[in-house]
Amino acid sequence: MSTLRLGDIAPDFQAETTQGPINFHEWLGDSWGVLFSHPADFTPVCTTELGTVANYVPEFQKRNTKVIALSVDGLDSHKEWIKDINETQNTEVNFPIIADEDKKVANLYDMLHPNASDKFTVRSVFVIGPDKKIKLTLTYPASTGRNFDELLRVIDSLQLTANYSVATPANWKDGEDVVIAPAIPDSDIPEKFPKGHTPIKPYLRLTPQPNK
Predict the structure, then answer these.
(1) What is the mean pLDDT of the chain?
(2) pLDDT tens sequence across 7-48
(3) Cα(106)–Cα(118) distance, rounded to whole angstroms?
(4) What's the predicted TM-score (pTM) here?
(5) Phi-psi region of 191 (alpha: psi -120 to 50; beta: other; left: phi over 0)
(6) pLDDT band at 93 (very low <50, low <70, confident <90, very high)
(7) What is the Cα–Cα distance from 194 to 210, expressed in whole angstroms?
(8) Which residues form the catalytic set?
(9) 206: CB partners within 8 A, 6+ apart
(10) Residues 6+ apart with CB under 8 A from 60
(11) Which residues contact 114 (CB under 8 A, 6 or more apart)?
(12) What is residue 197's predicted lDDT score, i.e. its pLDDT?
């Protein structure tokens, strides 16, 4: 299949997970979602990643975001691996891990890259909105662990810019000034952005984050 692009509907699927069977779109409901894949169970970098996500679940919940992992191993393997993750990362894995032995979901989301491996998934990340559309994709090599602080930052930006006519500048963090969308004429700024704004250039106008 062709590569999924931003704005595409995230493919729906049914799968077995460590927390029971799911229908993906139904499981997401009205939440945002993060679907992220792992090359295989009992791999070192993935062990640290799943432990990190378990510790970050409260932060995702604050953002109305569900997280779900995928590996091409089976449920029994996942459950044994979770014991190692909990032990070594001092956590409790509290989100589902999809069992994808037939690689159905991996193929659906183009997670199998022959240049990396024809057997295992690459480290893919999909952020999906409540409208079930793909808002962000990231692909990491097997040797590089993901930065979940960056994922939280991106979700903050996506949720902010979905509701206000703004964009977020480089290295932006929640609470910092944002960029007024170029489509907003200067005459509309006082009404739309009552906190005021700072014009840098006609196309670069900053305003305090509107939802703070």
Answers:
(1) 93
(2) 999 999 999 999 999 999 999 999 999 999 988 899 999 999
(3) 11
(4) 0.92
(5) alpha
(6) very high
(7) 9
(8) 46
(9) 169, 177, 178, 179, 180, 197, 198, 200
(10) 34, 66, 67, 152, 155
(11) none
(12) 96
Direct distance between the N- and C-terminal alpha carbons of the chain, in angstroms, rounded to an integer: 42
Would you state the pLDDT for residue 115? 55
Report d(CA 212, CA 159) in Å as an integer: 13
| CB-CB neighbours of 111 under 10 Å | 25
CA dihedral 15→21→25→29, nearest 10 degrees, is -160
Q: Which residue has the tokens 């962000």?
A: 136
State the Cα–Cα distance between residues 142 and 35, nearest whole angstrom: 17
Q: What is the DSSP string of the chain?
A: -PPP-TTSBPPP-EEEETT--EEHHHHHTTSEEEEEEES-SS-HHHHHHHHHHHHHHHHHHHTTEEEEEEESS-HHHHHHHHHHHHHHHTS---S-EEE-TT-HHHHHTT---TTT-SSS--EEEEEE-TTSBEEEEEEE-TTS---HHHHHHHHHHHHHHHHSSEE--TT--TTS-EEEPTTS-GGGHHHH-TT--EEEETTEEEE--TT-
Residue range 108-131, pLDDT digits in tens: 998 876 655 555 656 899 999 999
Euclidean distance between CA atoms 107 and 137, whole angstroms: 15
